[in-house]
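How it folds:
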Amino acid sequence: MAAMVEGKVVLVTGAGGGIGRDIALLMAQHGAKIVVNDVGASVAGEGADVGPAQRVVDEIVAAGGEALANTDSVSDPGAAARMVEQAVQRFGRIDCVVNNAGILRDRFFHKMSAEEFDSVLKVHLYGSFYVSRAAANYFKEQGAGCYIHMTSTSGLIGNLGQANYNAAKLGIMALSKSIALDMEKFNVRSNCVAPFAFSRMIGAIPTDTPEQQARVEKIKQMTPAKIAPICVYLASDQASDVNAQVFAVRNNEIFLMSQPRPIRSVQRSEGWTPESLAEHGMPALKGSFVPMERSGDVFTWDPV
């Protein structure tokens, strides 16, 4: 098997289990040196335990790879800087950041507290910024680097009871695009992956109804290991021309996701009034309105 990321140094956040763990393991199998970051907290972000990160490090080392554990929180800019510094001090450089760490605080919008909203954005969106920013100067100086950010179809399309998570995940797509535009001249790439996979976070989905139970059973078929290959590819030199894209991975399917573009327009030479909008403008646009869909309404077929 070709070692696609041989000698590269990769920092994977939230890598103590689930999707992050499988990304770290496959990166190591393909020759990368890994910083395994995980605070060891619950799905809701509570508690801390060095165990999960160290166990993944032990797996990598037992298989002949190189890795070190880091338990800093991505939601703290100083901690984010420390984990990047740790990679550079131990391995001499940093080549790829995989922003995977996340928590859930699901609640219907009209019941969501400011703390529940803020805590999820701090880990997902702010965390992606903090870790990415900490690596940016190293990438700039060495004239190369790669970011892989975990977004979600819940944010790209929509989902119930996740205003905090959805806002963060859609924000991550915009953050990735900005990084790609700003750092392209330094040979730095930034892409997003929206994973479908059963993990501790997905395990928090309610199963109170037969519909919810059936949905979770389908998701269980999609293992975290299915997400890792595209991440290894995106981190490799073979993906040197892949930048500012959003991919979704659903079991054995890989999708290139659309990004917002104009759908239809209306024009009036004398300009619009509220009355003319009501009479002519909006009726002309309504046929192209984006429907009120959730992610499950779009991905309706069983995973292959």
About this structure: The chain has a mean pLDDT of 93.
